[in-house]
Amino acid sequence: MHWQQLLDLSEQKSIQQARTLFDRDYDRIIFSHPFRKLQDKTQVHPLPEHDFVHNRLTHSLEVSSVGRSLGRLVGDSVLERRPEMARQISANDFGTIVASASLAHDIGNPPFGHSGEQAISEYFLLNAKLLESEFTQKEWADLVNFEGNAQGFRLLNKSGYQGLKLTAPTLAAFTKYPRPALVSDALKPRRSQKKYGFYVSEADLFKEMAHKLGLKALAEEQWTRHPLAFLVEAADDICYHVIDLEDGCNLGLLSQEDTIELYAQVIGERFDRNKLYTIRSKREQIAVLRALAISELIDQCKTLFLDSEEDILSGKFDVSLTDAIPAADHLAQISKISVQNIYRSRTVLEIEAAGFTVINGLLEAFVPAACSIQKGKQTRKEQVCYRLLPEDTRYEIEQAPTVYLALRALLDFVSGLTDSNAMNLYRKIGGIALPGKI
To answer: Which SMART domains does the annotation name (predicted)?
Structure first.
């Protein structure tokens, strides 16, 4: 792979222009409807009454900030090594591509976090006898393994969402898993093949993009990552390791001293305990350590990427950057403790349980209604449920040439609901609350 093709420099104008195509990508994502919905989607914890923790929106903004720094630092060195590219692209452009892809990295996540993904998948698995015969093997693989990354790629390419029309480099940097759901060989242990990144409905779009950018083919419908996707993944890894720990401490799920020690291990020689305790506020102490930890991890990931640049471009390098940096063992320890003390806390489990109940309830109401439209025969209940769907979703279902594409349109609606929207709709269709009496 070659940077000139990977960055689609043939489409770029002089770097002297005030607003580049990559700047336009960033702006279009941040003003898009799916992005704004992230403000009411759970990150890990429900929003407490007397404190602040991160939701999907604040998490995405922070990942984007870290991604911008990583992109700029890497871009500066790449251009220093390849000065002939500097006439067409700047280090800031590298940063903007990674920041844009990072901004959108959770845009396809359904309500209630990962439990929402699992709930959608389990609905189809549990109803396989009734539904599976309607679909091809590839289509069924999509439905029984709902994937937020593939859903995000679909939304970013969907004309109904203001027609974002992002550049190919931004879309490729967004795609951490350049493969469909059903493959003949998962190519373990390659990190890029761990999950999948596009549905059957967007397979041709991805193939066209991969050819345009010169992504290396690994097998039929499987490619190497765009190099900048490693930076997007690293930005996400850094933020959820470091910031979820801060949230856990602020909520009392982890002690102040334990949190300090975990951060200190990541920070290394820059950690100064005496200086830390000159800060009176315990919360500010944690905030300072969080910032130092992020800075250290950015530096380590940048160094590893640049040291591995040729292997990344050849497709030989295919692991998460944060799994191979000097601080990897410390991050693994943070992850282990976070699972025990944070991700399995009662409030988090309550959110997960609610997600399974609510999402399953919505699908039980709407999937039969959508399928019956394709068959031209509806029960009275299916008619009523169908009419509760938004007009644009109904139009897509009615225009869909196959049951699979009809359900893709329905899942765009269900996965696009915020936590509050999903809960309120579930209460109404389940008879738990009547309109105006919630």
So the answer is: HDc
